[in-house]
Amino acid sequence: MRQILFGLFAVFSICATIIGVQADNQPDVLHIERSRTMKVEAEVLYDLAVDLEAYKTWDPWSEKDPDQKTTWSDETSGVGAWMAWEGNEDVGKGKMTIIEVVPNKKVVTRLEFFEPWEGVATSTLTIEPAAKAKKGNLVTWSMEQDQDFGAKLFGMFADMDSMLGPDFAHGLKNLAAKGKEVQASLAEQEALRQQLRDTMMRDLMAAPPAEGE
Q1: What is the tally of helices (H) and strands (E) in the chain?
Q2: What is the CA radius of gyration of the chain?
Q3: What's the whole-number average pLDDT of the chain?
Q4: Hey, what domains does the chain have and what are their CATH numbers?
Q5: 147 partner at 20 to 30 Å CA-CA among 25, 30, 81, 117?
Q6: Exposed/middle/buried for 52, CB within 10 Å: 0-12, 13-18, 19+?
Q7: pLDDT digit string (tens) for 19-32?
């Protein structure tokens, strides 16, 4: 009996050692990334990302809990602006702060997760001209997070890219749709302004000359 227990303990120790070594060899940084080509102007896409109230209109996690509580800083756009959320188990509790921007090209945010687990990550959304064959803009949305041993061990049994990647892809789909909507609205407003300018010009040209002219 003692030999059996000793053998089981030896097997368990070997397995634990192998798993530990494999976990320790996992990447130090978790990287999630998805891209999508959008036929939307860079300025429109940037405005939807750099303003955190506008961000909520395409944020994929808002759909998972429409009743989540959200608060914003007084200034919702640009470096230093932040958004805090608290919702169900699908979205948890956390805070997002804009830490870097490159107008019409990039928005970088710091993500702080408080519930259901604690952690810090960096999210980057970049906008660049797409290949000539596709036209439009290529938008890439990524997230990076340092991994401790526990996170590496968890990653051996759960594919984080498969778990989180679809959310990023869905968010980009939402962004493309919202961008087209905003772009169409802006075009309509510009058309109305042009129509008003044309009408004013016609009225000015048709007006009789003032006396004495």
Answers
A1: 5, 7
A2: 26
A3: 81
A4: 26-203 (3.30.530.20)
A5: 81
A6: buried
A7: 444 544 455 667 89
